[in-house]
Write a structure and sequence with these properties.
It holds the Pfam family CobU. GO terms for molecular function: adenosylcobinamide kinase activity; cobinamide phosphate guanylyltransferase activity. Keywords: ATP-binding, Cobalamin biosynthesis, GTP-binding, Kinase, Nucleotide-binding, Nucleotidyltransferase, Transferase. By secondary structure, the protein is an alpha/beta fold. The chain has 7 helices and 7 strands. Strand 6 and strand 7 form a beta hairpin. The radius of gyration is 16 Å and the shape is globular. The model has no long low-confidence stretch (mean pLDDT about 90).
């Protein structure tokens, strides 16, 4: 297994920029995995995508992977650094899966992460710090993403929280929770 790093935090906190900094510092070929789908009819979304694209070096390979994340990760080479931005969008893209299918997708993803020899950086949004969503799909999204981030965090070499203009290394500052506990 290569290095596995999780970068999490609230919206517009600098998560992606920190992940991009770590990818540049890796000295490896960078593969940027964008989980968002390109929607030309949404001007604001296009602006967000453009902002991300402008920051990235020209020599980075970009793959648009809205759903088949595990397959893409499994196909990466050991001498590369894969930056996945973001897990929240990946979860949103799979929200229509029933609970059994979702559990299978998560299990496949977590096993794949542990088998890949490439370094991997995962960007994930923190959604559970606010009000419980008033609608079922919002609660499903929040719960699935929160659980995924927790499970991934337990197998990561390093976990960062980016907030308030700072990247905090939670691996050195915190204590890892036991794997078996599930608070859902």
């Amino acid at each position: 297994m290569g290095k596995v790093i999780l970068i999490t935090g609230p919206a517009r906190s600098g998560k992606s920029e920190w992940a991009e900094t770590l990818a540049r510092q890796s000295g490896k070929t960078v593969i940027y995995v964008a989980t968002a789908t390109n929607n030309p009819d949404d001007a604001e979304w296009q602006q967000r995508i453009q902002q991300h694209q402008t920051r990235r070096p020209q020599d980075w390979v970009t793959l648009e992977v809205p759903t088949t994340l595990s397959t893409t990760l499994a196909d990466t080479k050991a001498n590369s650094c894969v930056l996945v931005d973001s897990l929240g969008t990946w979860v949103a893209n799979l929200l229509e899966q029933d609970e059994v299918s979702w559990a299978n997708s998560v299990a496949e993803f977590l096993v794949t992460v542990q088998l890949v020899a490439a370094d991997m950086l995962f960007v994930a949004e923190e959604t559970g710090w606010g009000v419980v969503p008033a609608y079922p799909l919002g609660r499903t999204f929040r719960d699935r993403l929160g659980s995924l981030v927790r499970q991934l965090g337990t197998i990561c070499e390093t976990v960062y929280l980016v907030t308030g203009g700072h990247a905090l290394n939670l691996t050195t500052l915190g204590t890892r929770l036991p794997d078996a506990i599930d608070y859902e």
